[in-house]
């Protein structure tokens, strides 16, 4: 049995229907009308122990509602849910022992007492054995750099400090699963990296299963092997992150550094479809001249864009090498951001996505 298993999971909210403006609000007082909103509509999901899963989708897709049902906060309207063999909304206490949760917008720390005391209280609530508590406190304090603020109350913490303390609180009892809802929202780059490193380390060393909802696509690339995309309450892609990239990220760019300029480099690729040459515009330098667009160009730097299904990087480099010396080169591929943005913008339809994800999860 999988660690997390849902079948046909559903959540329907009753939403008030009001006409706009004050008149609409007054009318609603006397004639109330409601409609059913399917926040989650038949989700089938299996997550195995030790996986790191990104659960993403546009605003209002149903991510938080799913997480709330998995954590036992919400009762499903239909379908089945099992987490570690437990029905979360029926066995809330037992379920709480196996899960941890971090909500970027909220804290589970006590506002007015020092972080150290909050963590001690959680130890009592979760009945964490003394040696586990000490070991985890030592590890978390070091990995999350908490020493400087353990004596401060939650109200005095910066957002980055608060998030680190919340992560420690969520993992203190060695849960099997941690739900992370926007764990790096609003954080600076350094704290983001620290938090991501911590999550990776907990997954690696303790085998903690991580389910992450985020709008920060850097989190996904850095942390997750599996991607589940949800839209309008339904899963539209479930598969390996790399697979969706391989299928949809067709474009590559080779950035090359030449020892001497290659005039008319564009001609070298004329017969290849979907190849374009770009000369990065760089301002103010004697060794640089004006390109076709009038922009100042570095004649020793060429960026060549190509479709990796139409030709290969080695073909491009070979052609350049036959006309000059390539001193250095680097290949860039589009990040998952671009692909997911295309999904959100409706440029990739669910049929194409599910074909890509078929059998991979
Ligand atoms: N308590 C509620 N009552 C009525 N409707 C709700 C309630 N909670 C959520 N919804 C609706 O259900 C849908 C899914 O909401 P949910 O919060 O799960 O989306 P989300 O994917 O987490 O969005 P976001 O990325 O903005 O956090 C939305 O249309 C939302 O308005």
Automatic annotation (TrEMBL):
Record's keyword annotation contains Signal: no
InterPro entries: AAA+_ATPase (IPR003593), ABC_transporter-like_ATP-bd (IPR003439), ABC_transporter-like_CS (IPR017871), ABC_transporter_ATP-binding (IPR050763), P-loop_NTPase (IPR027417)
UniProt keywords, alphabetically: ATP-binding, Nucleotide-binding, Transport
Residue ranges occupied by any ABC transporter domain in the UniProt entry: 17-257
SUPFAM superfamilies: P-loop containing nucleoside triphosphate hydrolases (SSF52540)
Molecular function terms, GO-annotated: ATP binding; ATP hydrolysis activity
The keyword Transmembrane helix appears for this protein: no
PANTHER family in UniProt: ABC TRANSPORTER ATP-BINDING PROTEIN (PTHR42711), ABC-TRANSPORT PROTEIN, ATP-BINDING COMPONENT (PTHR42711:SF1)
Identification of the protein by name: ABC-2 type transport system ATP-binding protein
Source species of the chain: Fontibacillus phaseoli
Lineage: Bacteria, Bacillati, Bacillota, Bacilli, Bacillales
